[in-house]
Automatic annotation (TrEMBL):
Protein name in UniProt: DinB family protein
Organism this protein belongs to: Geodermatophilus obscurus
InterPro entries: DinB/YfiT-like, MST-like
SUPFAM superfamilies the record matches: DinB/YfiT-like putative metalloenzymes (SSF109854)
Length: 204
């Protein structure tokens, strides 16, 4: 497998990891903010869609024809990070699939040393190669797939790359609770904090 094919394979795998975190969830759970800063599953998918459209579109002179939500009059900052009530899940998933296809077409048609222009990057880095952009976007998609891992576990306890247990040890709920308690105790001991039982660290 050549380098471009390998990078594209990893990008496609991380896209699938992110998308899988929506499986089996209802409308509220895919949209609701799970962190204090509002991070949510459908918003991550929407955001990654626009990341792909930009980096593999305008950056290489290959605009997709899709508009960006932040260009709308009166658009608020972060509008690409959540789905409004009138945006259906199907709308966001269609955008995600479209952005992936557009990205793959750009990657397929250009050599790795093709040069693009990223206006929002620093001047000395503003004209990266396709190779650099592929690595950058692959890293960003992987980071957001990791965010989605944590969100999904907080929503319903589901963990794993694509399905529960597929890359985690087989443990019962009680075994996971005991494992977590050991980590909590270790953290408290390292920080010199009392244990949940109130005993000084290291006692017993």
């Amino acid at each position: 497998m050549d380098e471009k094919s390998a990078l594209l394979e990893y990008l496609r795998a991380r896209r699938a990891d992110l998308l899988a975190k929506l499986d089996g969830l209802g409308e509220y759970d895919v949209r609701r903010p799970v962190t204090p800063t509002g991070t949510n599953l459908l918003g991550l998918v929407k955001h990654v869609s626009y990341v792909q459209l930009g980096y593999f579109g305008e950056v290489f002179g290959r605009p997709s024809g899709r508009s960006y939500p932040w260009d709308a009059e009166g658009a608020e900052e972060g509008v690409d990070l959540w789905a409004a009530p009138e945006e259906s899940r199907a709308d966001v998933l269609e955008l995600y699939a479209f952005s992936a296809a557009h990205a793959d077409a750009t990657i397929g048609e250009l050599p790795l040393d093709a040069t693009g222009t990223v206006p929002w990057w620093r001047a000395e880095r503003r004209h990266p190669t396709l190779h650099t952009v592929l690595v950058h976007v692959g890293g960003e998609v992987a980071r957001h797939a990791g965010h989605a891992d944590v969100l999904r576990e907080l929503i319903d306890g589901s963990a794993g790359v694509s399905s529960p247990g597929d890359n985690l040890p087989e443990r019962s709920a009680a075994e996971w609770a005991a494992f977590r308690e050991r980590i909590e105790a270790a953290a408290r001991q390292a920080a010199g904090l009392p244990t949940p039982s109130g005993a000084p660290p290291g006692d017993g």
